[in-house]
Amino acid sequence: MKIFIDSANIDEIKEAISWGIVDGVTTNPSLIKKAVEYFKNQGISFTMEEYIEKLLKVAGKGRWVSLEVIGNTEDDMLGEAETLFAKFNNISNNVIIKIPVNPEIEENGTKHFDGLKVIKKLKEKNIPVNCTLIMSSNQALLAAKAGAKYVSPFAGRIDDFLRKKIGMTFEKEDYYPEEGLVIDEKVLNDDGIVSGVDLVASIKEILDNFNFDTEIIAASVRNARQVRELAEVGVHIATIPFSVIKDMVKHPKTFEGMINFMKDTIPEYREIFK
Ligand code: G3P
Fold this sequence. Notes:
Layout: E1 2-6, H1 10-18, E2 24-26, H2 29-40, H3 48-59, E3 64-68, H4 74-92, E4 95-100, E5 105-107, E6 110-112, H5 114-124, E7 129-134, H6 137-146, E8 150-153, H7 155-165, E9 182-183, E10 186-187, H8 196-209, E11 215-218, H9 224-232, E12 237-240, H10 242-249, H11 252-264, H12 267-271
Helix pairs in contact: 1-3, 4-5, 6-8, 7-8
Bound molecules: SN-glycerol-3-phosphate.
């Protein structure tokens, strides 16, 4: 499984890359807001162009960086995708454009389904797309057919959605069972999907059934146990916040073992390293 870091924070991205485990980076407007606030609070100033250029250089060639459009209509999304690609792809040749699957915008009584249209047009222009905000297997199927290189199901937000249906209170990082929650003898579900990991598994099955080249980036990942389950269902890529990547390394018995080995080290053995 490939690991992307779900962050726009250059310090975090640099650190995670130095661990040798990062294959790509995903950003969105909320992550950019958080990262820019983090640096501004330290008195570091820059233009948005400078920041993105640096981020793309830090990620480096061969590691995709997802940059998201902000519009909802076909014209806006297409124009923004072309602007982002033209401005930034020449820096490290690693820009991929995030397009929401289906904003379903209503204008003058007509509903537009512009996400798919934009994906198709960008495919024709050889601009790679990561189709984002995927909340159902059908959306993923359609995005793959329209030509998305990647589809990003938001696992954690599906778990949130299911919990909110029954008014459950929870913390963002709380684990939600892959097999779902049984309430009144029925598994809580969203059109048959019982958890975020279940959604990813369903999309994986569908894309495999028809040999799509489209790969899945499991997004909105909230905890280390969820990462393990995503790996078990064979997702191609998981994009993971740095806090969760750090949790993946931790185990109390590993820590205890390190302390004990340090305590037991005899001076003769220590001598070797002098
Ligand atoms: O990659 C999408 C991700 O950043 C959204 O995560 O935790 O806000 O649902 P979250």
